[in-house]
Design a protein that fits this description.
The protein is of the alpha+beta class. The protein has three domains: 89 residues, 2-Layer Sandwich (Ribosomal Protein S5, domain 2); 48 residues, no CATH class; 143 residues, no CATH class. 63% of the residues lie in helices and 16% in strands.
Amino acid sequence: MPIYSMTGFARTQVRVHDLLVYTLSLKSVNHRFLDIQLRLPSGFDALEMELRRAVKESLVRGHVDLTLSVERSVQQKVGYNRELVSGYLAAFKQAREEFQIAGEPNINVALQMPGALQTESRSTGDGDVAALTESVTRSIGPLLEELKLMRAREGEALQTILLASLDRLTEAVEGVTELRPEVEQRYQERLTQRLIAATGNEFSRQRLLEEVAVQVDHSDISEELGRMTTHIGHFRDLLAAGGEVGKKLDFLLQEMNREANTLLSKTGGVGGKGMRITELGLAMKAEIEKAREQIQNAE
């Protein structure tokens, strides 16, 4: 199952009949929960409830804008005033016989007489509301599937970015793991020298070494590295499983950031190759922050 981005768009235009066309569009962006905003013409309260239900059944998270726009046309039917035109023809015939003149009546002249031509307008009526409601109800399902398809494509791109961040994060963890023994040895030596210089002959060497061992143990970063590796593996597993993983991944990144902070606090001030560990720890935090920015758009 893929992971889904919360970014997507889908649109359809449907002609109910010659005089009625509507456009139904869906747009989604990231949001902590499922937030649905509908923009419908007045008089479609029942349809609004149906559309909300459909969106809730199809999507889990995201701010969703659903817009329905309706175009109503007016059709005009042109006819003629039969009584007026027939009266004109009859009068023309009567005048021709009375005055014994030749000629035929001009129909163009007859139709130009005031009131000779008549127009009848026909527009959408109440019955079209029911037809439009039924059509929109049929359209919303396929449109939501189109939206989810786009969100899945965006999710694939998001997954690629996150996997690349995990690879770089893994490289940083491996780099710190390689440096750890040497840095810990250096830390132990420097701490021993400082304690001997500070205490002189007041404590035995054995007591000093025990104190050094305690301090070195407190600065050990093996647990942080182990947990970081575990978190990275869990992150990869969640990406592979797909589905609704945004909140889980965000929580994991918070835990990974905590481990990176602890690692940096324990290795600060060692010097030498310890500086390299600091660089790698900062690189971890940078990758974690990049991933958190991307995760905000994951469903």
